[in-house]
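Sample A.
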Amino acid sequence: MTKYFKLFLFLCLTNLSLAQSTSDANQFIKLDLGRSFAGSGDLTGLQYGVRYQKNIKNQTFWTVGIESTIHDKESIDYFFTNENGEELTGKSRYITSGVQLLSTIGYDFLKNEKHDFSIALGPVIRYQTNSLPHRVDILYPVLTNLPEPIKIETFVEKMRTIALGGVIKLNYHYAFSNNVLIGLTGGFQIDTNADTIQYLMVGIGKKF
């Protein structure tokens, strides 16, 4: 945990030093909310966060933000008809949730008074907790002599993890006025736990 945090802090300070190299004061703070997909896409949920962005120069900018995700899924483990003729369905419900800090350096491909389209990338440090088992075994009554199936979940990975990773984002912003904007952000990230997240968020921000 300590080494990941130190490395993340170093990368953030490197980005911040670039941001301090200009007197351009164009900046905004923005709230984002959207749809998120974890892993191979079978875990779906919400992603939301707040981001501060400051222009540097030559169409480049620096951001820092905090985001949170929550994903869940439901799977059917078995169908079974008991001795009374009742049809039973065994289900599992899993949740993965996390919070993360991130900082990026970006470049505006298109920028004018109303529109800007950009790409950004940088480090992310993520705390995550999940209830996903490594394996699920179903023991049927023919093996146990019990009236209904028994489910056994085996856990190998830690429930709570901290990981360092990288993120890449595509952003579009439209300015309603000199101080209000809306935006669309798509992103992909991967970390040292081999966890991946893809997302699409909409947001509203204020320039200052």
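Sample B, a different protein:
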Amino acid sequence: MKKLMLGMLVSAPLTFTQAIAGESVDTIYVGGQSSRLTMDQMEMNTQGGYTAYIDMEGDIGNLLIFDIDAKVSGRGHNQHQITVETDYSTPWNPIRRSIVPTGMFYYEIEVAISCNGKAIAYGKKNLNEQHRRGKLVHDKNRTLEFLLDNERKMGGTCQQIKVEVNPIQVADLYRDGVQKEKTVLDAISLDIHVLEKF
């Protein structure tokens, strides 16, 4: 088995989705206590991940320090492909097609934080594994942890923070049919602390 453990932490991803004001689940105050989010407080989105909004009070234009910790647990997915074999014992139907694992197992998660449409922090990490062709991973439970710290001057415009936690779904290697497996998130714990730098 070959494990592919990759991580990427950047402050401004190219694919950041723009924030649309949503119903807030909490309020965070600049210089106050940290705010904790769990998956129960978040809404499932179209990517199979979860989204939440947190109101923020106290951005008066100074430099803001964002301290964000996240723990994301879930079940990864095996990738599959179609194999074509010739079975001469059945000459009336010699072509046999079957769906088999490629040997690739994926658990890849991205966490995106924005405020009123402006990117604050982004992290993308994985616990992907490469096995021999035909190998099926049965224990699919995995956990990733993120430390996302950043400093940004929002100019007094940061009023609502948007949190997005999404699984990366790697497609099976065939065109037709429904994908056999997808990554599913089971638990999210995310802490946000915002301080002010004078």
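Observation for Sample B: The radius of gyration is 21 Å.
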